[in-house]
Amino acid sequence: MRAVDVIQKKRDGKELSTQEINEWIQQYCEGDIPDYQMSAWTMAVYFNGMTAREVADLTLAMANSGDQVDLSAINGVKVDKHSTGGVGDKTSLILAPLVAASGVPVAKMSGRGLGHTGGTVDKLESITGFHTERTQQQFVDQVNTIGVSIIGQSGDLAPADKQLYALRDVTATVESIPLISSSIMSKKIAAGADAIVLDVKTGNGAFMKTLEESIQLAKTMVSIGTEVGRDTAAVISDMDQPLGFAIGNALEVEEAIVTLQGNGPADLTELCITLAAHMVVLGQRANSYDEARVIVEDSLRSGKALQKLQELVEAQGGDGSIVHDLGKLPQASMQYDVMSKHSGYVSAIGAEQLGIAAMKLGAGRATKDESIDHAVGIVLRKKVGDAVQQGEVLATLYVNKEVDEQSEPVIMVHSAYGIKEQQPQVRPLLMAIVTKDGVTTL
Ligand code: URA
Strands 430-435, 393-399: parallel, antiparallel or unpaired by DSSP? Predict the structure, then answer.
């Protein structure tokens, strides 16, 4: 295979064979294809797309480029969940116990946060004593005993994607549906789940800004999953503002616990119930979405899901009584209210800006090796559509160092909030469901 021929074929809109794609990825990983040729190829894919077969082949080639997690020692159908990104997205903390309490085993590997997005592992480590490092045997045993475990990602999953994603980031080729789909699905497939539920975000804070593009992305990922024998469904949800109210590690754990207690924000609760119900269907614990939803709502209402979180925390070394005593979570020493400079209605909230503001307070890390402060973050007091008076609180910063109106995070929170005279039309949270049987717009 000559690299230039593969690039030319893609440039001219022709279909690559399975063998060409496999060799292309393998040689890239081995360093035989340089970044400049891969860059030309990703740009050709950006403009010309790929067929469903090509995308499935690319996904498998990347999944096969590193370690593959074997979850076969865990009983039952293992269903994983993936979100295409978000700020204040604490769904995994809620879904894992909720789905486990509904009878589907959850063996989840999660990552740490980087930049403006948070990571589940960092959030869980706000609970004193909670360990996310476990051996494969401990991980398997815990899921077989209590139905759930969340650990930090170990091993080298889909290294081809890691290399390719870094290149796409600097060659303006991130926003390509075949490349995003294969990137996400290669990691999920390597992580070993039998079935996958995807939370695809749409809107200002997401890769895909329009519903049409988001549906196309979801359809591509569902088709990859189906093609490689992993039942896959996608829920498309709005990302024009952060989910729930809390941004920051311990603050998000607190909101997750409040949600499992049945008193969570409406948007977060609804999204979690919907995603959990789809996971219960793919986990073969219910024959239909409606049946699954009844099971999931019962797990939430009865307190079974909260009890499952307590078991999870205790099994991984933390103090389980935290689920009834939120005061045991790390607390910031000061609070600072960011007040609105105008009266009107909240028309938009820039999720990414708030994520960066929280990072600058210490809740996140700009580079991989930085340490974080679990207690700090932001709690929104107003969401899109809310009326606001000049001088009313838009958001509260939880801080461990003094801030004032000149501090960068405060300036960023002010600029993240759009305030308009007219009350805006609030978009529904849930916009569409995509399964192998088709698309349902909501
Ligand atoms: N997330 C990923 O893992 N890959 C992409 O390409 C985009 C988002």
Answer: unpaired
- The span from the CA of 140 to the CA of 154, in Å, is 14
Strands across the sheet with 377-380, in order? 246-247, 377-380, 393-399, 334-339
**Crossing angle between the packed helical segments 177-190 and 52-63, to the nearest 10 degrees:** 40
pLDDT, tens digit, 9 for 90 and up, residues 351-370: 889 999 999 999 998 787 78
Closest ligand 1 atom, CA of 174? 6
Residues lining ligand 1, Cβ inside 6 A? 84, 165, 174, 179-180, 183-184, 207
- Which ligand 1 atom is the nearest neighbour of the CA of 184? 3
Instruction: Give the pLDDT confidence of 74-132 residue by residue, as tens digits.
Output: 999 999 999 887 788 899 999 999 999 999 999 998 888 777 778 899 999 999 999 99
**Alpha carbon of 423 to those of 337, 348, 418, 419: distances in Å?**
24, 11, 12, 9
Nearest residue (CA) to ligand 1, atom 5:
180
- Ligand 1 midpoint to CA 294 (Å): 33
Annotated active-site positions, please? 82, 161, 168, 183, 187
Q: Which atom of ligand 1 is nearest to the CA of 180?
A: 6
- Helix 266-282 × helix 91-101 angle, to 10°: 50
Q: If you compute the radius of gyration of the chain from its CA atoms, what whole number of angstroms results?
A: 22
